[in-house]
Amino acid sequence: MKLKVHNTHLSTHRSVILHYYNLGHRCAAEIARQTKIPVLTVRYNLVKIKKEGGVEHRRGNGRPRKITLEDNRAIGQWIRRNNEITAQEIIEKLQANRNLTVSRWTVQRQLHRLGYENVLPRGTPMLTNEQKERRVQWALAHKDDDWNRTVFSDETSYQLFRNTIHRWSKHAQEEKKEFQKTDKKSWCGVHSPTKILRKHLLNGARKQFGSRWRYQQDNDPKHTSKIAKQFLEKEVPEMIDWPSNSPDINPIENMWSILKRRVEKQNPSNIDELDQFLHEEWQKFETNIINNL
């Protein structure tokens, strides 16, 4: 009577050998000839089936893992308390609290086994409940707008060497970090805002749209000064109200993100190179990308 054994999480070779065994094949050379599996592998697994009734690896085969289940629980607890903890800090905690000495690679492999990824959280502004509600109301009020005659404005800053702090996370796409904006950049540090608006805004907007256009800008104090407001009321056909602390609503934010990635890929090593690469990438920026923002 043939011994029937079952396939439970086996490798491909072992599964095939088990299949032939269940069909009644007992000759290692014949199975090897038909399957192209090395005869020694076939012979080893046939012996294993006869002795143990299957070809599964027994628990405990191979070198035991250095990090135990209780060590894993401790690591998970440390990450839940502070998911910006580094692999080196985990090593030090294991040594101090668990009397365990491991390498950085061992810690990283174990974290990956536990489902964690080392990710850089996306920056997101800190919003109050009132600001969140105003954003919703603003979106509802403007959901049917025609944006083809809208002029958007924005500014950004560029850094040579960004201070990046990674996190361990099981949900990399959801990882964010709240921040408060600590610096502000105007369009130009010398001229008054009205000169900038007249030179860079009015001429282009009137040339493109005539007298039928509207203008968006955020609520930065330099944009809402008395002189700037008087100028805009006089020269701009229509202004769009803008919810506070909401830079992510502006489509130009997507353009800044693309531009920064392109500049960073060139690895500028000083301010002059940063300025040069920034101007070069700005000149090369594709119109079709801007149209699809």
From TrEMBL:
Transmembrane segments: none annotated. It holds the Pfam family HTH_Tnp_Tc3_2. One of its GO terms (biological process) is DNA integration. It comes from Rotaria socialis. GO terms for molecular function: DNA binding. Residues 73-144 form the Transposase Tc1-like domain. Residues 217-274 form the Tc1-like transposase DDE domain. This is Transposase. The lineage of its organism: Eukaryota, Metazoa, Spiralia, Gnathifera, Rotifera.
